[in-house]
Specification:
Blueprint lengths: L7 H44 L1
Length: 52
C-alpha cells in the first residue's frame, strides 16, 4: 500500500509552497507598483505637454 509522506517531507513541501506563494505575491505587487509608476510618469508628461 502507498503511504503518504509524513513528518519532515510534508513540512518541507508546505514551506516550499508558502515560499513560492510569497515570492509570487511579491513579484505581483512589484509589477503593479512599477506599472502604476510608469503610467503616472506618462500621464504627467502628457499633462505637461498639454499645459505648454
Amino acid at each position: 500500500m502507498y503511504q503518504p509522506p509524513k513528518g519532515p517531507v510534508v513540512g518541507t513541501g508546505l514551506v516550499a509552497a508558502s515560499a513560492m506563494a510569497t515570492i509570487h505575491a511579491m513579484l505581483l505587487i512589484v509589477t503593479i507598483v512599477f506599472t502604476l509608476f510608469v503610467l503616472t510618469r506618462i500621464v504627467r508628461r502628457g499633462m505637461n505637454g498639454l499645459g505648454k
